[in-house]
Amino acid sequence: MAANRILLVDDDPKVEEQLKEPLKEDGYTLYAMRNPADALDFIHRDPPVLILLDFSIPAYSVDSFMEELSRVTTTRIPVVLLITMSEMEEAPSHPGIAGFVTKPISISQLKAHIELIFNMSRPAESPSEPDHSAEVPASVVPEPEHKPVGNKELENVHVLIIDDDNDMVSFLSEALIMEGFKVTTAMDGYEGLVKAQSDVPDIILLDIMMPKMDGFQVCRLLKFSERYSKIPIVMLTARVQPEDQQTAFLIAGADAYITKPFRISDVVERVKHLLTHEVVPPAQAE
To answer: Which of 18, 152, 214, 227 has a Cα-to-Cα distance from 101 of 20 to 30 A?
Structure first.
């Protein structure tokens, strides 16, 4: 496998023109194929390090391409989907898809995604201690009857909270610590991804709308990795549209989706359930 070759599978020549020079700046050589069958033949002869796959490639569905890909090579090649927001609902969930970049393509977003895929073992800084001084956030339903009780069985269970809302992070941290969990936090998507890789928590609570990298991208990258894919991920978000939930479950690979405002007891019970029960993907659940 050539260490710097990226294969683009897209029938639009403008995409190749847009990506070739920026990727060359980072040391990659971009090869473009308009026809999926030609691309698969190319992969069979000399597998690239990464495949950029247009969601709407002609003559092939993404599922059929991924199936053929597994036949032409035994090498595990990460695949990044190039997809429009309107196509998100139709995108398949496949373990070989490492991530997705929305069209029109942002070069900086694409470069960041490629870098993260190739650096999933990058060490992180020591996690910061949570701040417990914040008031109850507006997105948490007051719950006078909920009385957290420490549980020694949970003392070694590590929860990573990734959210850019300081009040939310502080409130969740305090509530989970009182329940007996060990908690670390991150204030943006990129920091959260790095901490997930270095700390390997038992479960992750993940916001969607965050700076540097959104929750969908963080979740997809972790679920693609063999090392981190088994970590349950709960998305806590104010986004209530059905298409957001579909993206979370079917594309990003989330294990649970809780909308704000929520009750802290619901979050605690969902965390406990995911830690003690085998996760059934929502697409397979009855």
So the answer is: 227
* Residue in the block written with tokens 């403008």: 14
Give pLDDT tens digits for 68-99: 999 999 888 999 999 887 787 677 667 788 88
Contact 225, 108 (CB under 8 A): no
pLDDT given at position 285: 39
DSSP string for residues in 20-65? HHHHHHTT-EEEEESSHHHHHHHHHHS--SEEEEETT-TT--HHHH
Helix-strand-coil percent breakdown of the chain, rounded to 5?
40, 20, 40
If one counts every other C-beta atom within 10 angstroms of the C-beta of residue 230, the result is 12
Contact predicate 96/64, CB 8 Å: no
Q: Per residue in 58-92, is it b (16+ CB within 10 Å) or e — as a string?
A: eebebeebbebbeeebeeebbbbbbbeeebbeebe
The owner of tokens 């969740």 is 172
The residues, ordered by sequence, that sit 6+ positions from 257 with a Cβ below 8 Å of its Cβ are 234, 235, 237, 245, 248, 249
87 with 54: CB under 8 angstroms? no
Rounded distance between C-alpha atoms, residue 116 and residue 124, angstroms: 13
